[in-house]
């Protein structure tokens, strides 16, 4: 019998692969429980988590539909570095440095709510503007929450942009820091000796389940953060 997490992952995959288009009515809970050989309660929980993630809309007696792109009232508050760089008129380039499935360190397991034996996907990547490194992305993705990440190479798309296509409205926690660069960060970001970095540590989750934990490292001289009068942060 499949778990609600497995069912949620399968249904989410059908939505993000556009097998089910925005506005499409999903099969009934009874039909899905028969398809997956499980109880309706298990399907119901999977559906609730898809709704909490902003992927479907559930209405009593009207069924569950895939959400239209502009029908969700929430504003995406996670910036996409490719868009930021292109908005400044610079040419964008992405480079995947490392990809592996592994057991995360203890602090990451705590952030994602994982047990000691649950593997996650580790990714390290660089984002360039006009050939100059602008951001180092060091990330763990919870494969229990996003199982389809195990099938994605991330060779051609950054993990942040890929995740936003699948979970557009997660819960978010940010921690901002001014740090001294490590030797690796200095080398990868092509920093001068002693040049500081600006870091963002971000944790995202839905319905209490961690999705990703990431450390974003930026050269202090090439990055700034501003706020609008609405107090929503913008990044550049």
From TrEMBL:
<keyword id="KW-0238">DNA-binding</keyword>
<dbReference type="InterPro" id="IPR012318">
    <property type="entry name" value="HTH_CRP"/>
</dbReference>
<protein>
    <submittedName>
        <fullName>HTH-type transcriptional repressor YvoA</fullName>
    </submittedName>
</protein>
<dbReference type="Pfam" id="PF00392">
    <property type="entry name" value="GntR"/>
</dbReference>
<dbReference type="InterPro" id="IPR036390">
    <property type="entry name" value="WH_DNA-bd_sf"/>
</dbReference>
<dbReference type="InterPro" id="IPR011663">
    <property type="entry name" value="UTRA"/>
</dbReference>
<dbReference type="Pfam" id="PF07702">
    <property type="entry name" value="UTRA"/>
</dbReference>
<dbReference type="InterPro" id="IPR000524">
    <property type="entry name" value="Tscrpt_reg_HTH_GntR"/>
</dbReference>
<dbReference type="InterPro" id="IPR036388">
    <property type="entry name" value="WH-like_DNA-bd_sf"/>
</dbReference>
<feature type="domain" description="HTH gntR-type">
    <location>
        <begin position="1"/>
        <end position="69"/>
    </location>
</feature>
<dbReference type="InterPro" id="IPR028978">
    <property type="entry name" value="Chorismate_lyase_/UTRA_dom_sf"/>
</dbReference>
<keyword id="KW-0804">Transcription</keyword>
<dbReference type="GO" id="GO:0003677">
    <property type="term" value="F:DNA binding"/>
</dbReference>
<dbReference type="GO" id="GO:0003700">
    <property type="term" value="F:DNA-binding transcription factor activity"/>
</dbReference>
<keyword id="KW-0805">Transcription regulation</keyword>
<dbReference type="InterPro" id="IPR050679">
    <property type="entry name" value="Bact_HTH_transcr_reg"/>
</dbReference>
